[in-house]
Design goal:
The chain has about 220 residues and is α/β, with parallel strands linked by helices. The chain has two domains: about 180 residues, Rossmann fold (3-Layer(aba) Sandwich); about 30 residues, no CATH class. The chain is about 55% helix and about 10% strand. The chain is built from nine helices and five strands, in the order ααβαααβααβαββα. Strand 3, helix 8 and strand 4 form a beta-alpha-beta unit. It is globular. The N and C termini lie close together (about 5 Å).
């Protein structure tokens, strides 16, 4: 991990010392996501309610510039110039940003409603993992209780397919503590307080990973 990455991670614990007990697992999650992207894989996220919004938020920070502008690399620029309409290439190159591949499972409305109606509502996330998850991907499973059935089933399928599973939960960890590869169980019991701590955690994950791939300092 780069020195700048470690420095930015330290800022999390200065601002939120309550998260210090989670430090080792947060570092493990960062390292897993870095390895995932080095291997050309992706991050998948899912949750319910406020945690569904968090899944979308994570994807939004990864798929575009967060703290860095992420200018296109020369290879991408070359391919765009070779394959785009002449009057479109400059506009694309000026405005597009290098992504860190990530998808959320919560907004697949047609698939989700069809599978819930025809098969099993609590397996909607699991079905999507079965179809889109690949060995080496990272699945971020968000559940304040750690007991959300649809999230747990998705973790089961993710592990079966060789994904690394990262759980964001509350203090108890729920059932996810027994199944996730990496457990970040923030030290709160009430749902809204858990969610308040999940946000700085996943911001830190996104900041650290972006620093590794787009920061100036070399590892």
């Amino acid at each position: 991990m780069k020195q700048n990455t470690s420095k930015k991670l330290d800022e999390l614990f200065i601002r939120y010392p309550v998260l210090l007990p989670c430090k080792d697992e947060i570092i493990k999650a960062i390292e897993a996501i870095i390895d995932c992207y080095i291997s050309g894989k992706k991050v998948i996220a899912a949750g319910n309610g406020g945690s569904a919004a968090d899944a979308e938020h994570i994807v939004g920070e990864l798929m575009k510039g967060f703290l860095y502008p992420r200018a296109l690399n020369e290879t991408t620029i070359k391919k765009i110039r070779e394959n785009s309409r002449e009057n479109a290439a400059d506009y694309l190159i000026k405005n597009l940003q290098m992504p860190l591949a990530a998808i959320s499972l919560v907004n697949q409305v047609a698939l989700g409603t069809a599978f819930a109606n025809d098969q099993a509502a609590d397996l909607v996330f699991a079905q999507q993992i079965l179809g889109m998850g690949n060995k080496g991907d990272v699945f971020i499973a968000i559940s304040t209780s750690g007991n959300s059935k649809n999230v747990l089933y998705a973790v089961d399928v993710a592990k079966a397919k060789g994904l690394t599973t990262v759980a964001l939960t509350g203090k108890s960890g729920g059932e996810l503590k027994n199944t996730a590869d990496i457990l970040i169980n923030v030290p709160e019991d009430e749902t809204y307080k858990i969610q308040e701590l999940h946000l700085p955690v996943y911001h830190a994950l996104c900041i650290a990973v972006e620093e590794e791939f787009f920061g100036e300092e070399q590892a």
